[in-house]
Design a protein that fits this description.
Distance between the termini: 27 Å
Low-confidence stretches: none
Strand content: 25-35%
Helix content: 10-25%
Shape: globular
CATH topology: Fumarylacetoacetate hydrolase, domain 2
CATH superfamily: Fumarylacetoacetase-like, C-terminal domain
CATH class: Alpha Beta
Bound molecules: magnesium ion
Mean pLDDT: 96
Structural class: alpha+beta
Number of domains: 1
Length: 203
């Protein structure tokens, strides 16, 4: 199982980090050891002084595919969850400056918090899914899948040119504006529509 993450997929977020809006999806991967399940806490890693949350819709791949045509891409995912793409922003900023890979900033253990999945058949409108995140009870981020620069079908089509997608693979689809740092004691609660799906406490 692999975790594919899309960067800079909401223009307001790209701007807040002074990144250009990309012409094709920016993607990277996390290993399966990054998964943080069942609302377990995240222990603040010792190697960073600027740990950030990024709240993202997560799509689950349900069949094998390579070079998937965009018009058939909807058949390749079956469920949606919400997750946090935890990021060591200080390490990522250094890596960007030096043109180095992002893995030390993005792929560390427990950096991919994940909720339970909701089958896609329960969504009224798959192209407009609202989500939000409260940090310590205050609204910190909100977004809607319709504001993605590259929707899930485009992402599946693009990424499957490079890597074979397999059943159980996950795609984190990028974060809207409002990313920020967490501290020990922070509580992050993520919602799809009005349903609380994921709670992560930083310890
Ligand atoms: Mg992200």
């Amino acid at each position: 199982m692999k975790i594919i993450c899309i960067g800079r997929n909401y223009s307001e977020h790209a701007k807040e980090l002074n990144n250009e809006v990309p012409e094709s999806p920016v993607w990277f991967m996390k290993p399966d050891s990054a998964l943080l399940l069942k609302n377990r806490p995240l222990y603040y890693p010792e190697f960073t002084k600027d740990l950030h949350y990024e709240t993202e819709l997560v799509y689950r791949i349900c069949k094998v595919g390579k070079h998937i045509d965009e018009k058939f891409a909807h058949d390749y995912y079956d469920a949606i969850a919400i997750g946090f793409d935890f990021t060591a922003r200080d390490i990522q900023s250094e890596a960007k400056k030096k043109g180095l890979p992002w893995e030390p900033a993005k792929a560390f253990d427990n950096s991919a918090a994940l909720s339970e999945f909701i089958s896609k058949k329960y969504f009224d409108n798959l192209s407009s899914i609202h989500f939000k995140m409260l940090k310590d009870g205050n609204l910190a981020q909100q977004g809607n899948s319709e504001d993605m620069l590259f929707n899930i079908e485009k992402i599946i089509a693009y990424v499957s040119k490079f890597v074979t997608l397999k059943m159980g693979d996950l795609i984190y689809t990028g974060t809207p504006a409002g990313v920020g740092s967490v501290q020990i004691g922070s509580v992050l609660e993520a919602y799809i529509e009005d349903k609380l799906m994921l709670k992560t406490t930083i310890k």
